[in-house]
Amino acid sequence: MDLTKKLKELSHQEMRLIGFFGALLILILPALAMQLTDQVRWGLEDFAAMFLLLVLLGASIEVVVRIFQKTGFRLAAGTLVCGFFVLIWAHLAVGIF
Questions:
Q1: Burial environment of residue 62 by CB neighbours within 10 A (0 to 12, 13 to 18, 19 or more)
Q2: Which of 1, 53, 59, 71 is the most buried (most CB within 10 A)?
Q3: What mean pLDDT value characterizes the chain?
């Protein structure tokens, strides 16, 4: 059984759980890195900002999935949402604009 067939068999609830644990992992990685090195220095406001960004990303993806029925539209809108997420994250991280 290939990966695309397995992904199509997942329910929306299972996909939400995968997204939730993925977001949790993204928040745990900097906390773990802070314990291992002095080069990562996140404060409470950094974790709060990333949490808010991840919540908005998840909510936006949920809206995209609910609005669009065709896979092509979902991919295009999801790519756009993820692109905006990366753009905002990069701006907050290093101030590229």
A1: middle
A2: 53
A3: 89
3-state SS assignment for residue 70: coil
pTM, to two decimals: 0.81
What single-letter DSSP state applies at residue 38? S
Burial classification of residue 2, based on how many CB atoms lie within 10 Å of its CB (0-12 exposed, 13-18 middle, 19 or more buried): exposed
Alpha carbon of residue 27 to chain centroid: 10
Closest to 26 in 3D by CA, of 54, 49, 1, 52: 54
Torsion of CA 46, 48, 53, 58, to 10 degrees: 140
